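Researcher: I'd like a candidate sequence for this fold, 556 residues long. If you have to choose between options at a position, lean toward the conservative one.
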């Protein structure tokens, strides 16, 4: 507990930076309401509440995006995660979050060299006869350098920025605590699920910091396309790849954004659009493991109309049941079956309270507006966006894996239409959806699901007598307890208890300071000043604990 207290005091500086940036961008009311201002002012840190006129004219989504950019790597990554939550934020917010580019100035290669030598186990020149010290690209977590192996193979070295991990972990601790405070103190923000978003973000960012995990994801997707020579995934060089370094083949192709170069090279845009769409649909609906960020920056076009995917730091996973639900949903949209669509949405709602009597007519009206529209004229991305807007109106949030998938699906259709204005996403998706539905209804799949359900039921029935015996035994011994919690009263009691503890520790700390000061002035006994010094140390520890308890208590 003491180390937690010391850690919290160390994080106060970062907390001050966060509060100051939020205030500067016009979110001072939020800072006050969640207690950040009170905690920092009690810790003796001044906050500047001035709001520049230029920032005051910006819309809230733009102001928040600017604030996230200024707060640094962790918050830029948080914004990128928020950009996937189309179920939580309306389009204008998603558009601003999507502008967050993970770019940063490159640091000198000399600063990378000690860490790179440690990760390689020997100086880089011993492995790479040629290595470019000028970075190809630089982001908040890493930067990339091109090199060549002894056999002439061109590779890239993705090197994690030295010292970035402690900064990220401090930000994650603060975000977790702030999410708890926001849910407790700002009821109107609970619909954005701050704790769930931060938990998902923490898992995603920690995976992204582990470059070996990115390598494993790339190899897994490459294995799924072993029989598809038109799809290229860079090879990972495992002898030199680890948590802080990723060495992989260099992709020499046309960047996804350079359509003029695509035309100059004589590549077939329509074929590229179809191949890219089929590749990502295969990842999503057949393999259940997909590239979650298929934007043009992560795609390269190669000779013979081949496509290379890079950067597997953000990937999505879909269970077989999720894939079936998604297939039912998309097939219901394409075939205008509103009842199927509503059923899936209600399943995804989990325990959320939803008025199905109002949801069903809205889904009916939504599907009816596309009735009779040919598949090639359907904008499936727009359909999904409109559908998610209905979910937001009903307070329904998607599970994170599906939110990520829908965002990737919309990005994929945008990429296809960029290559080919007549790109038919619905037509490309339909065969995959039908295969998923047929596989779910195959005799072997039905037998397996039936056997699994029977096995689970038998296990439940077999354990029921023992559970009943334990319940009755506890009742006979008088140990059967029924606990009723009155949450507002419990919350008030917890606050009162924390306040009393802080007051007691403050009194003891003050007494130690006064007593130690008196003792240290006594010169007759040689040992007494030592006791005074110990008293001062104890007072410092008590003061740290009080600061930590203030931080934990928020406004309380």
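Model: Candidate sequence:
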């Amino acid at each position: 507990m003491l180390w937690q207290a010391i850690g919290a005091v160390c994080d106060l500086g970062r907390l001050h930076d966060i509060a100051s940036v939020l205030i500067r961008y016009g979110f001072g009311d939020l800072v006050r309401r969640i207690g950040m201002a009170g905690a920092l002012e009690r810790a003796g840190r001044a906050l500047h509440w001035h709001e520049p006129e230029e920032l005051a004219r910006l819309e809230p989504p733009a102001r928040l995006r600017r604030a996230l950019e200024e707060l640094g790597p962790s918050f830029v990554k948080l914004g990128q995660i928020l950009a996937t939550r189309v179920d939580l934020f309306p389009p204008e917010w998603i558009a601003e979050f999507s502008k967050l580019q993970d770019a940063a100035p490159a640091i000198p290669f000399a600063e990378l060299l000690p860490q790179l030598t440690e990760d390689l186990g020997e100086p880089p020149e011993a492995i790479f006869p040629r290595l470019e010290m000028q970075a190809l690209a630089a982001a908040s977590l890493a930067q990339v350098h091109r090199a060549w192996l002894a056999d002439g193979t061109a590779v890239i070295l993705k090197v994690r920025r030295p010292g970035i991990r402690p900064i990220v972990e401090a930000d994650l601790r603060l975000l977790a605590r702030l999410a708890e405070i926001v849910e407790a103190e700002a009821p109107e923000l609970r619909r954005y699920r701050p704790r769930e978003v931060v938990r998902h973000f923490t898992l995603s960012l920690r995976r992204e910091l582990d470059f070996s995990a990115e390598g494993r994801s790339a190899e897994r997707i490459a294995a799924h396309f072993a029989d598809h020579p038109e799809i290229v995934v860079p090879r990972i060089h495992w002898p030199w790849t680890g948590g802080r370094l990723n060495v992989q083949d260099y992709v020499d192709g046309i960047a996804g954004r350079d359509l003029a170069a695509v035309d100059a090279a004589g590549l077939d845009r329509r074929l590229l659009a179809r191949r890219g769409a089929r590749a990502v649909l295969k990842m999503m609906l057949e393999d259940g493991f997909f590239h979650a960020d298929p934007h043009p920056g992560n795609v390269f076009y190669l000779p013979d109309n081949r496509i290379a995917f890079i950067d597997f730091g953000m990937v999505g996973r879909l269970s077989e049941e999720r894939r079936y639900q998604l297939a039912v949903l998309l097939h219901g949209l394409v075939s205008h079956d509103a009842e199927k669509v509503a059923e899936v949405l209600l399943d995804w709602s989990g325990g959320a309270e939803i008025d199905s009597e109002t949801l069903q007519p809205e889904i009916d009206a939504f599907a009816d507006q596309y009735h009779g529209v040919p598949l090639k004229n359907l904008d499936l991305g727009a359909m999904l966006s409109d559908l998610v807007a209905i979910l937001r109106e009903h307070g329904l949030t998607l599970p994170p894996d599906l939110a990520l998938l829908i965002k990737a699906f919309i990005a994929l259709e945008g990429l296809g239409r960029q290559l080919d204005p007549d790109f038919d996403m619905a037509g490309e998706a339909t065969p995959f959806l039908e295969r998923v539905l047929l596989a779910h209804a195959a005799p072997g799949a039905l037998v397996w699901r039936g056997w699994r359900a029977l096995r689970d039921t038998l296990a439940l029935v077999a354990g029921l007598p023992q559970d009943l015996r334990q319940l009755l035994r506890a009742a006979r011994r008088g140990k059967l307890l029924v606990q009723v919690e009155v949450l507002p009263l419990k919350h008030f009691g917890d606050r009162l208890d924390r306040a009393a503890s802080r007051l007691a520790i403050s009194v003891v700390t003050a007494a130690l300071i006064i007593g130690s000061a008196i003792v240290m002035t006594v010169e007759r006994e040689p040992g007494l000043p030592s006791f005074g010094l110990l008293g001062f140390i104890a007072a410092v520890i008590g003061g740290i604990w009080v600061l930590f308890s203030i931080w934990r208590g928020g406004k309380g």
